[in-house]
């Protein structure tokens, strides 16, 4: 081990020991105070505090090193390769005209002041943005700073029969007849804990509803504590009293800093050439640079081939090739590790496809060793391999030689969930039943598409034609029919593009205290809103959120600004519009665009983004647009700028681009490989 890593290791251990000793005293005092106050007969305060302290020490040891695909054969300390991330509120100032106040929050440590203001935090973002690493970093930082009593829980370990309290009880591992789970609940009710809850989206699908209910109950009676939940976006994420944030993508310079950190640990000295290659590509890799996972994949693939892939699927393929080949630039003798199973690159790829699909099918990414070996055995039995292969040999290959699975504690998991999704996508693409599978996914997108979102983003690279036929073509036909459902004057056309599968209700409010009452947590918003304004959403399926916008007024005699309350959301009767549009945006389909500016004429667009522009209030009291409400002749058609402001930062379908793309799809669908045979016969 290099001297730098030895020093980092010893310093980390020393800090952890000092911090956990401090927490031991806090815990001992807390246990005695709570149990005495509750008149709980218990005499083992020191032993229980010591057990909890050991849990913290083992957690520090577990989370201070991380697996990183870019440096797979090295023990990597989190702090050596961690690039500080920023988070951005999805709610604060969401509807205010002064949107500049909603600035990203940079977290290069556990920020006590910030988390005191936001004690319940929900951080969502797409695959590879570093949510788990970010949470581990904050956990370690809170221990180092001796802030509260931190507990880290991987939500994938929960199921219908094993809830949060069960997991905490298991982690503490204090076996005593006079210590029960109810005692843990009493300690948690007393407060001072800091819960890091990682990976809501990884809760097994069949158990998610029950686990969510258990989790919400746990949070409710632990209300004096702080909670941070991470997840990919998911329709089940209904934690109404949590502040919602997303991770801000890396800036180009930050991505280059991360590459330099990999270089310092690996010694490969790729930074300069890789950065030059990226800069010479003139923006082709900008989207990849925002994502920490993809930066690490760029590093690995460049190390192996000195060239960079252009699609997500190509990324994963090149990473797999690099891991299988195992070219190590620090060795000059060309040494390669032996593949124990004897499976060729393509055979192991085939195994991984079947194995990954089973993992998706069974909603599992946490394997005890015996279960994993049995699953490998089943996949091998069903696969068409030319020779007999031992499950344990494959196990060693996918853990050691081509390390797509890693060991965490006593169990194993995919090194990153997105690799499981990549191989599963490949499996679906060659399966005879793929069309039926994808049609079922289309028909049941409200239930399944959020879970399959990243998988389908990768699938679109692998089998674009089928993806277009089932997802893109049907969406465009529905959208175009919707827009053309009314005579297309300019403003009607704009509004019909806005309200596809969406609903928006705006009302004027001159008394800010009334607005505060309506939007106060735990109030019945529908009832309060209807009582005050006499109107509510037309679609009960609308998954709404709420907020307010402030508009400067042109009339100097009135207030400087007018507050407008907004209820807005997607209509969840068939479409999972958010997941579907995000997939299409990631694949750069030209008809999906961020912000309404792309579909507005220049005069309206100029006013839209001028947040000092003074509005003429007009005589309207409510503006209401929805998928199933006619817009022609309504006040919404007249006051379209008020409507457009509410759609800033939302994904919008562009009618003109949609028409062009659908024409292109229809033209291509007329082409057939059979036409070649027909031409040959004539000749």
UniProtKB/TrEMBL annotation:
It comes from Bacillus cereus. Gene3D superfamilies: P-loop containing nucleotide triphosphate hydrolases (3.40.50.300). InterPro entries: NACHT_NTPase (IPR007111), P-loop_NTPase (IPR027417). Residues 126-262 form the NACHT domain. This is NACHT domain-containing protein. It comes from the Bacteria. The lineage of its organism: Bacteria, Bacillati, Bacillota, Bacilli, Bacillales.
